[in-house]
Design goal:
The complex is a heterotrimer of chains A (303), B (326) and C (337). With 303 residues, chain A is mainly alpha-helical. Chain A is built from twelve helices and no strands. Chain B has 326 residues and is an all-alpha fold. A two-stranded antiparallel sheet of chain B has the order 1-2. With 337 residues, chain C is α/β, with parallel strands linked by helices. Chain C is 32% helix and 22% strand. Classes of the chains: A mainly alpha (303), B mainly alpha (326), C alpha/beta (337). Chains in contact: A-B, B-C. At the A-B interface, helix 7, helix 10, helix 11 and helix 12 of A face helix 1, helix 6, helix 7, helix 10 and helix 11 of B.
């Protein structure tokens, strides 16, 4: 395990990583955020959802460096007395969870469909390509909005699980297309090659062929796409939550927090909305940086 | 080429019918219009009567046919929230969204393209790196957050620009425009900038990437080998070849403006179709949602068709009506 | 006086793992009007030589030392603006793939006229007339109409004719042709080569013909330089290099070409492969593969020395034992026999 890490660090990609300050910083930030979110119950100073600990006398406190602020509430509190910092950490957890799960499902869906389309060809392929074309002609955010919006309208008092299910489904269904296309393209290329035809003749299963020959080739581009898409997914989720059709207020994501805080903007309590916003941008930026770096590192032409 | 157009038209029609089907299903799934009209305690005969009057006793596909027929004429019934005809509501709000989208599109193009060209030609320079870093930021900033921050700085703190509404509008026939009044423009600034930033970033990155690709081609190398000036190579050859795919992709992106308008309109309470949709969602106002769905699909289908046709006009390789030589 | 002189040219590529030397002390000359072939395996440095001459080396590649002289004046150290004036006007270039060499969005007339007006003080109408003449010269039928056609409306061979017309548009004295026929059908290759030869003769232009195809060299060139691992192994008149090569590498190359009249059970091949740029052996670059290698080959690098009828960089030559090896700074064109 240690030796493969060293080997990777010494490779071209690893070297590029070590010498790119942006990639290093981005990875560090992403890691810290990820870990904090993962271990939220232990990292957060308070539990913002435990109603017993909330005290309305703590409501609307500004961040600690203001004269009225307190150091136990480092970034201030909202109108219910909830600690903003803790809400941030829990919120990040939700945002990251939704983002990562959506992308994972997108990749699975897209890669599977792409393999099928590329390998089976015929009407399956044609149908899938038509579907991809049509879906690509609409902006992703619009489709996600429509799905989430319709879901919200149909089930206005849905239980949390359903709300998250619809949210994740909305983001997943908009992201699979690019993976499907990439994988399909590669599959088509490989399928023509003689060794694949030879393998079929001697009876190697299609599944084994696709797994052993096609998948390794597409791994690079899919990885780059997926990394960048995590940032997009997080932002999309935040947008949907801000508009009220995403994460419910009982389990608020960063977007929901921003939405809640927006009402207090004009009364001067800017921290309720700005801090979640900052964290959101920080996470999205680091993931985007990583994705950008990864794309340049894996692109042989740019070296 | 005619065959191509026909094929695209058929595809477009299929998309529209599918979307209409989804919209129709919305009506089927939500609520019971009969109980909404008659209330909870109604006799069986009253229910049957109302059902027949509404055409609900007919087979589903017949109902769909009626729905389509009405939809094509723009008739979607009444808004559940406001009680006015849906078509009127949408017609009222359409100009606001369109004006916002067009101004934002213009901003994005006028700033994005030159920045992208500069970043490609002066690759590695300090300014180009700055642009690329800013563009990364632009892609990482959700549109609604941009709006909120702009409001915080320019409305709440500085008080330079208003933060909601359209201001004074002028009615020209059925169209209400905010472009003819100073106040209208004043209200337009912050929302337009908010809407434009994401598009601007995308366009800039796209132009830069395309141009870098083009600068690597053999025909650019050959143009340089022929001693053509940098200006001729960069702006005569490279730029034209860059803008062709960029222009068509941008056409598709402009459709994204309609989507992002929903967000911007919500943040700024801009009285456009996007805000109408969000309000409809919160209220479960199905007729409005269905109408919005169909209208959006129509807009996108038309945009895509135009963009496809544009390819023909601009790229001589696709014009098949000229003879090939030997 | 020579038209082009290349003296001790060194081209390097600084990289993460150290600096690679792609061209190592290259020296040769081209006389006005002559056709010099440059032949060698892939990776020997042929195209790089052409790129260095027209000043279009792709960064990070750069000329580390040496000189390139055009009609007696140095051109390797010119500022970009001046180098641009030389390109097209005094040195023309032809590349391998005619499809990608032409801008698909502009008519060939527009591209021709643009090139002409950049270098020559002609009006648009005059330039257009000249463009039509060039097209006719290069064998494009119905030039008057076809001048307004787009590149995709021409076949591969026709496109290469257009490319040749473009290269000659400003009357350069030297044309660097990098694999001009490799991307074409065999049947078209002969036509294009003959066209190149006749048109250049007519315009009095010298040609540096870069290729890996000895057949093309034999048909077309006056002299030929054989490159190996970034150096010139042998240079001389075409007939001599082909039939009486002095360098073991050249001899090996020639014997690899099957002769239809000689019966053979196995095709001849040279064992091994050309060394990678970061693993060039000390001394003579060919020593790992040479059948006649001896001690000195591993120690000192041979410069070009006179052989019987050519010049070769080999310690086997009798002239290598004589005196001061003042390295020949240029291989002078021999008198044609």
């Amino acid at each position: 395990m240690k030796s493969t890490l060293f080997k990777w660090l010494d490779s071209d990609v690893g070297h590029s990583f070590r010498t790119s300050p942006a990639a290093l910083v981005a990875a560090a930030i992403a890691l810290v955020c990820g870990l904090a979110a993962l271990f939220a119950p232990w990292v957060a100073p308070h539990n913002p959802f435990d109603l017993a600990t909330l005290d309305l006398s703590n409501a609307r406190l500004p961040p600690a460096w203001y004269p009225e602020g307190q150091w136990t509430f480092l970034l201030g509190t909202d109108d219910q007395g909830r600690d903003i910092l803790s809400a941030l950490i829990y919120g990040a957890r939700i945002s990251l969870f939704v983002g990562l799960v959506s992308v994972l499902l997108s990749v699975l869906l897209g890669v599977t469909l792409g393999l099928l389309a590329g390998y089976l060809g015929g009407w399956v392929d044609a149908l899938l390509m038509r579907l991809c074309d049509v879906m690509l002609s609409f902006p992703a955010i619009l489709i996600a909005l429509l799905i989430a919006g319709i879901g919200h309208a149909l089930f206005p008092n849905a239980p949390e699980a359903l709300a998250f299910g619809v949210l994740i489904a909305a983001i997943t269904l908009t992201g699979w297309v690019q993976y499907a296309r990439t994988v399909r393209g590669s599959t088509l290329v490989e399928r023509q090659k003689e060794y694949v035809q030879a393998a079929r003749v001697i009876g190697v299963s299609s599944l084994a062929i696709m797994r052993r020959h096609v998948l390794p080739n597409v791994l690079g581009p899919v990885l780059v796409l997926a990394t960048i898409q995590v940032a997009t997914a997080i932002i999309t989720e935040a947008t949907l939550s801000f508009l009220g059709v995403g994460a419910p207020p009982t389990s608020p994501s960063l977007g929901t927090l921003i939405r809640i805080g927006n009402d207090y903007l004009f009364s001067g309590e800017w921290w309720i909305t700005i801090f979640p916003g900052l964290l959101l941008v920080l996470i999205a930026l680091s993931v985007n940086l990583l994705g950008d770096w990864l794309r340049d590192a894996l692109n042989p032409r740019l070296r | 080429m005619l065959a191509f157009i026909l094929r695209r038209l058929v595809q477009a029609a299929l998309v529209m019918v599918t979307v209409a089907l989804i919209a129709f299903m919305l009506f089927q799934f939500v609520g019971d219009p009969v109980s909404q009209i008659l209330g909870q305690d109604a006799t069986a005969e009253q229910v049957a009567e109302v059902r027949a009057a509404l055409g609900l006793d007919q087979p589903v596909w017949v109902q769909f046919g009626h729905f389509l027929y009405n939809a094509v004429q723009g008739e979607f019934g009444m808004s559940l929230r406001q009680g006015t005809p849906v078509a009127t509501l949408i017609a009222e709000r359409f100009p606001a969204t369109l004006e916002l989208a067009l101004v934002a599109a213009l901003l994005a193009l006028l700033i994005g393209i030159p920045l992208g060209v500069y970043a490609a030609l002066r690759r590695g320079s300090a300014l180009a790196q700055l642009f690329m870093t800013l563009s990364l930021l632009g892609v990482s900033l959700p549109t609604f957050l941009i709006g909120i921050v702009l409001i915080l700085i320019f409305s709440v703190h500085l008080g330079w620009f208003p933060s909601f509404g359209r201001g004074e509008v002028v009615q020209i026939g059925g169209w209400s425009t905010g472009l003819l009044t100073a106040q209208g423009w004043h209200h337009l600034v912050l929302p337009a900038i908010t809407l434009a930033i994401f598009q601007l970033t995308l366009i800039m990155r796209l132009v830069r990437a395309e141009m870098l690709e083009v600068l690597r081609t053999d025909y650019i190398k050959f143009a340089r080998a022929r001693g053509l000036s940098d200006r001729a190579v960069h702006f005569g050859h490279a730029l034209k070849n860059t803008l062709v795919p960029v222009m068509t992709i941008t056409g598709l992106q402009l459709g994204g403006l309609i989507a992002f308008a929903i967000i911007t309109e919500t943040v700024f309470q801009w009285p456009g179709m996007g805000l109408l949709f969000i309000q409809a969602v919160t209220f479960a106002d199905i007729p409005v949602m269905a109408a919005y769905l169909c209208l959006i699909a129509l807009i996108f289908v038309v945009i895509n068709l135009i963009v496809d046709l544009l390819y023909f006009v601009v790229d001589p390789r696709l014009r098949l009506d000229q003879s090939s030589g030997h | 006086m020579s038209l082009l002189q290349v003296q001790n040219l060194v081209v390097e590529f600084p990289g993460r793992h150290g600096t690679l030397r792609a061209l190592d002390q290259l020296s040769f000359e081209i006389a006005p009007g002559e056709i010099l072939g440059v032949v060698g395996e892939s990776g020997a440095g042929k195209s790089l030589t052409g790129a260095a001459i027209i000043g279009l080396l792709e960064p990070p590649g750069r000329i580390a030392s040496g000189q390139i002289l055009l009609e007696g004046e140095r051109i390797d150290n010119l500022p970009p603006a001046q180098m641009r004036r030389i390109r097209g006007r005094r040195i023309g270039a032809i590349f391998q793939d005619p499809l990608t060499s032409l801008n698909p969005l502009y008519s060939i007339g527009r591209q021709l006229i643009e090139t002409i007006t950049t270098h020559l003080p002609l009006s648009h109408a005059q330039a257009r007339r000249r463009a039509i003449e060039l097209l006719q010269e290069t064998g494009i039928p119905a030039a008057q109409e076809r001048i307004d056609h787009y590149p995709h409306q021409f076949s591969g061979g026709m496109r290469q004719r257009v490319v040749i017309a473009l290269a000659l548009a400003a009357e350069p004295k030297l044309i660097v042709a990098d694999e001009p026929t490799t991307a074409l059908d065999v049947s078209i290759q002969a036509q294009i080569i003959n066209l190149l030869k006749s048109v250049c003769k007519k315009h009095g232009a010298a040609v540096m013909l870069i290729t890996h195809d000895m057949g093309v060299i034999a048909e077309t060139c006056d002299r030929v330089a054989v490159m190996y691992a970034g150096r010139i192994a042998e240079i001389g008149p075409v007939r001599e290099v082909i039939h009486a090569a002095a360098h073991p590498y050249t001899q090996g190359l020639m014997s690899c070409i099957p002769d239809i009249e000689i019966e053979r059970a196995r095709l001849h091949q040279i064992d091994g492969a050309m060394p990678r740029l970061n693993a060039i052996p000390a001394g003579c670059a060919f020593n790992p593969r040479c059948r006649q290698v001896f001690a000195r080959c591993h120690q000192e690098r041979p410069e070009l020395m006179p052989a019987a009828t050519t010049q070769a960089a080999c310690w086997l030559l009798p002239s290598s034992t004589s005196s001061t090896s003042a390295p020949l700074a240029a291989a002078l064109p021999e008198a044609q026999s």
